[in-house]
Amino acid sequence: MSDPRSLCVAAAACAAAVLLTVTGCSSSGGFDSSAPKQSSSGRQSLSVMIATSGDAETAAVKQATAAWAKQTGDTVTVQLASDINQQLGQAFAGNKPPDVFYVNSDQFANYAKGGSLYAYGDQISDASAFSGTLRDSFSYGGKLVCLPKDSSTLGLAINTTLWQQAGLTAADYPTTWQQLADDAAKLTKGGVTGLVTTPDYQRIGALMKEAGGWITNPDQTAMTADSAANTKALTFVKSMMANGSLKYASDVDAGWGGEALGKKKAAMTIEGNWLQGAMKADYPGVAYKVVPLPAGPAGKGTLVFSNCWGVAAKSGHQKAAVDLVRYLTSAKQQLSFADAFGVMPSRTDALATYAQKYPAAKAWVEGIGYAQRPVTIAGFNQVLAQFNTDLQTLRTSTPAKILGGLQRNGGQVLKNAQ
Amino acid sequence: MPSSTLVTTPAPAGPQRPAPVTGRGPLRDRMREGAWGWLFVTPMVVVLGLFMVLPILMALWVSLLHWDGQSDPFTAHADFVGLRNYRDLLGQDGLTRTLFATSLRNTAYYVLLTVPLQTMLALGLAITVNQRMLRGRGAARTIFYFPSVTSSIAVSTVFLFLFQGSGSINRMLSWVGVKGPNWFADPRGVVWLVLGNLGLTDRDHPGGPLARHGVLGLSWADWFSGPSVALCTLILLSVWTTSGTFMLIFLAALQDIPRNLEEAAALDGVNRRQLLRHVTLPALRPVLFLVLTLGLIATWQVFDQVYVMGKGAPGNTTLTPAYLSYSSGFDNSDYGHGAAIAFILLAIILPLAGLQRWVLRERGTKAVTRGVRVRGSR
Question: Where are the bilayer-spanning segments (chain A) (predicted)?
Fold first, then answer.
């Protein structure tokens, strides 16, 4: 052993072994472009990853998946993601994605383009029962890739106490931009701001839609950001800011519109149906009413949001996974999710039942009919994040400059994608 | 304290070897020793290689790819784009470059303010708690060190509350008649803010003609805006949390300065300032280098506070390269850009550390300094 040569040999052997392990790892864990081998055993074990909004959602999803597992004899493990983009990104790169997972609409195009999603839309016989706008949101290359989990739209939430204190009645609920501006001005006094919202396209975009504009054309093949309609929408917002009747949430020390409404710093805010749960939990004493967003020059407009139930292209249990999704998106299950944590169903039949059961959510439900779907273009997140950042400066900047930046940045992404 | 420790050479760290066995040459002997040495360090070399060198090389490869994170980057199918990611970040006019330039500007201001402030504060604290006269030294040391052992996420969250528009800080400011800004929501750069308040520049159009031209997609007005109010809060936070750690390092070095040096200086009749300038600081030079380098590296890589406090908001003025790298990868599915940002960051930090080493290099051959250094660097 004390012979230096044998030591050298040993060291070399060690190094070689390490090298082999490393390269071995990378090739055995490597990516296989062919379809993954499907498990054919009787009992399958599925993993589901969700980004939960709270305990209620977690419990509801666990309960639903457990019921399905009992029915089929398979097992389901529900994993909670604290940062789902990062965790899914790691899982895809590591080639070990969960079988079923939430896909946010802003990540949908990235995952679909990267080939990580198993397009199971053609296996869903009653796909037409889902809202058409949402089906469009989760289609890629003309194929429905995944089923929308639920739906949310924006409405105008009004603090009814402050409303009455300002001498306004139910007849004054704004239906036009002019009325909105007038009401907001009347409501603004003391520590109260007429309308408080967050500086992002997921709110102000609704006004762009009402003015007849949007960020892209309907096919999402060209930018239409610097249109006259969009400029009109931002100019309107800016004019309300100028007389102090519209403020951003951070300017009144709130994280979002709901908080401003709950803390009585806002008389009105633009929020979606997640507001219900938050108000009930955090500000149960605040009375409010939700009305449709007032119509702009081009009529009514709102935005619709959703997540979809993605099935991994690399999953070895695709058949069972699609079956689970079918179960989770059934009308009955969607209504029980609605009861548990206040989301709106994504199926039109279930939505009708929901509307009857929850009359307070009428404005949000109706919004589905004329809502604009989110932008789903691969690599577009940075562009929209920058647009949101620019919207923060709307008070000192100009609509033309902000929209021009969006047009330019988005155009580059579209050009690179083609 | 016996001064003889200054002169005695320490025992060599390796195993004591007996006299060479007859019949074997010294060269052969050295080789044998080398082989043993390698064998002993193999575990560490393997660990470092596996978990540091290899991932770095992998990331370097990824930075040359257009990779969406959803395929194997180490096959022939990988979309090799050469230096395009670097060109997008540095050369090509577009959102990517503007964001990167913004993050560089923010971090440059952040480093420029944080590193000197935290070093000075740490040194000041260390000198204070090193005084033999001070009562309750132990308690003071614990208190000053406390922010450093607290989770930076927790501290950031507490700061978020303190610095709200109607938070405690602004309430305290209002007692003295100052109306504090809405700290974390204020994207205005402090340079233009101060100049605007002095009436030297137009408040709504800061920078004037400087706003028209620029470099790397950012106008000169933006480059020279200084840190935003929100970034200043971040600077305050990191100075507060890190100075405790560096205080500890300074304290260890201060206690290593031989007492007789100070006594000799006292005999020579120096006052406190001269003692600090000519005895203490030269003795601390290697530690000062350590603290500055650690500070420099940590500040260029700042991530967690940004992640907690606003992810770049307001107005991208707290965006840092480390956070941008993260969001390019995980939010925008563009891991190539993310990796390229990391390597540009490396290319910035390395020369800066080198420059600092050169600035703090040993000059002159003062006996005092050298004597202390031998001990201090042990």
Answer: none
Q: What is the tens place of the pLDDT at every residue in B297-343?
A: 889 988 988 988 888 878 888 999 999 999 998 888 889 999 999 99
Residues of B in contact with A256 (CB under 8 A): none
CATH number at residue A133: 3.40.190.10
Per-residue pLDDT tens over the stretch B109-134 = 999 999 999 999 999 999 888 887 77
Chain B residues with CB-CB distance to A113 below 8 A: 68
- At what angle are helices B190-197 and B229-256 packed, to 10 degrees? 110
The answer on A168 and A288 residing in a single domain is yes
- For residues A177 and A322, membership in a common domain is answered with no
**Domain-embedded: residue A288:** yes
Instruction: Provide the shortest C-alpha distance from residue B110 to chain A (in Å).
Output: 20
Backbone angles phi, psi at A258, to 5 degrees: -60, -40
Domains and CATH numbers, chain B: 26-84 (no CATH), 86-189+226-376 (1.10.3720.10)
A177 and A249 co-located in one domain? yes
**Chain A residues 387-406 with a CB less than 8 Å from chain B:** 389, 392-393, 396
Q: Tens digits of per-residue pLDDT, A135-189?
A: 999 999 889 999 999 999 999 999 999 999 888 888 889 999 999 999 999 899 8
Contact A287, A170 (CB under 8 A): no
Give how far B220 is from chain A: nearest CA, Å.
17
Count of domains forming chain A = 2
- What values do phi and psi take at B215, rounded to 5? -140, 150
- CA pair distance B114, B132, nearest whole angstrom: 29
Contact A229, A253 (CB under 8 A): no
CA angle A151, A157, A158 (to 5 degrees): 165
A38 part of a folded domain: no
Q: Round to whole Å and give the CA distance between A15 and B126.
A: 46
**8 Å CB contact between A185 and A268:** no
What residues of A are in contact with residue B41 (Cβ under 8 Å)? none
Shared domain for A333 and A248, answered yes or no, is no
**Whether residue A98 has a cis bond before it, omega within 30° of 0:** no
3-class SS string, A12-81: HHHHHHHHHHHHHHHHHCCCCCCCCCCCCCCCCEEEEEECCCCHHHHHHHHHHHHHHHHHHCCEEEEEEC
Q: Cβ contacts (< 8 Å) between B331 and chain A: which residues?
A: 85, 107, 381-382, 385
For B100, the 3-state DSSP assignment is helix
Would the CB atoms of B312 and A107 count as touching at under 8 Å? no
Is residue A3 situated within a structural domain?
no
**Interface membership of A191 toward B (CB under 8 Å):** no
